[in-house]
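We modelled the chain as a single entity of 681 amino acids. Its sequence is:
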Amino acid sequence: MTDHPFYDMHRHGFVRVATSTPKVRTADVAYNRDGIIAEARRAHEAGVDLLVYPELCLSSYAIDDLHLQQAMIEAVEDAIGAIVEASRGLSPVLLIGAALADRGRLYNCGLAIADGKLLGVVPKSYLPNYREFYEKRWFVSGIGLTGRMIRVGAEDVPFGTDLVFASNRQRDFRFFIEICEDFWAPTPPSSLGALAGATILCNLSASNIVIGKADDRHLLCSSQSARTASAYVYSAGGHGESTTDLAWDGQGVIYELGGLLAQSKRFSLEPELCIADIDCARIANDRLRLPTYADAARAVGNPEQAFRTIGFDHQPASGDIGLQRPMRRYPFVPDRADKLDADCYEAFNIQVDGLMRRVESAKAKSLIIGVSGGLDSTHALIVMAKTCDRLGMPRSAIRGYTMPGFGTSEGTRTNAWKLMKALGITADEIDIRPTATTMLKDIGHPYGRGEPVYDVTFENVQAGLRTDYLFRLAGQQSGFVVGTGDLSELALGWCTYGVGDHMSHYAVNAGVPKTLMQYLIRWTAETQVDAETRDVLLAILNTEISPELVPAGENGEIQSTEDKVGPYALNDFFLHHVMRFGQKPSKVAFLAWHAWHDAARGEWPAGLPDEARTAYDLPTIAHWLEAFCQRFFAFAQYKRSAIPNGPKVSSGGALSPRGDWRAPSDASAEVWLAELRRALP
């Protein structure tokens, strides 16, 4: 079934890119030519679309005055012709480094070659001439070279720093070339290249290695890809370069929107391909959301009007060739094991700081919360406790209420009481069942006549009563109600509108998705509390997620939220890719399938228990994605349009109508549902 077009990554906007560290021998052009061709063929077998070699890889970089020898110049030009011919029928576009002479000047160049054709030549702009570098002794800067042609062999090809290369097959596959020192400059040429429309910025580099320089390269690649909303591909010279005075590590790195996708093994003695699949469609979509990107282009004269676009045909691999990039199953959850404590601390303190400011502004004497023994109220209560600690308020100022209803289990009620006791807050209980029964009877609901009818009205009467009590208690206690509902529930509309869990005085969890909440509670249990509180928190984590508004069945089975709306792991995955990047549903399904279909593949967040490491097949993903689209686009917005204040926590976004997400309350979901149905097997 994986021969269906759905499984072809190219259809979803991905481009397979690699850096290459080929076999190199100092000043041996024929040897280097053969090494370049060998790596091109190996990249073809790996389904690579764009292959970036090091700077001056045809001659090797560190040959000093040999660059100016006529025999060397002619040998390089002859070798280019052989590489162009060898590229016929190969999938990758090859970016090779070579010195080319033109009109009495020698240029350090990057050459783009695709399927038997030399597409164009880009000269290096910034020539280092300090410390160990003497490039101005041999080469001329390409600064200001635009609109030119250069003769290579018997052919004139585009030449200049104003070239963007664009695939004729893939809409967003557009790349720009710069060379080594160019990206160390205060104004890298690739900044203009990105503003001219290139989604992939490529750096052919020699760059000798000294202590700490590898970290500097990472910093520059990350920052340039983030600043220009692009991918950055960097390939440095390696073993085989002259070690007369310098050493070389062959570092290759690939970044996308500031994040590392892949890096090579440094100091390798063997040729190496560092491969990653770049999401060019995501880059293009992200730029649509960044007015600063368009403003920056306008500020420098709209370079897309001055740059030349060089179209090319290539031979991309087809079918299911996999997906080679890190895939985060939990995109909202911290994934840096070495900085886990710092990330969790930051997430908590965003909420704590927001709540502190609101307490100070309202001059509240108490904080009111309904405590169910579930995840949301548990997390909110932890945030409230930390808020009181930082403000110097006694935790007794927090007034927590359990409010058992018709579906409340003894387990969650017990956990709620244990938690309130462990955190040292003021605890009380209000049984809402008598009042709920009266209300159901007053409105003529069948349950008021003793009939076991457990419909939405039955549930909402309980949810509404709980919130009503909390608001009245807040008035009585000179305090305000802290909301417990989370980002995942807002995405799905899984809350009772108005006088229900939809409403509060401050929605402290509004920016926290369920998967992040679970992770933060687990982190708190393991690192922040005593053994007694830890046991309570872990018990809450291991409880089925349920609103507990319907009595348990005859077999003791309780109402399950995830049976109704789908696994939160999938829903949060869908939410991230739809809300943050505007990905179309079929692509979200493609990403979800690669992330979730095999539990044994890929990385899991640090500390996630083995029992949580599950897998979902494509039919399951498609079923819940369709349900998500229906709820997110066509149902839930009217609830989101009227939510209380609450802090944004994740760069993945929030759903406040005053912030990240603005949408009509009465939209149709048909565009998204139709796209999903058309594209899936």
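As a brief sanity check on the tokenised model: Residues 350 and 549 are 31 Å apart (CA to CA). The radius of gyration is 30 Å.
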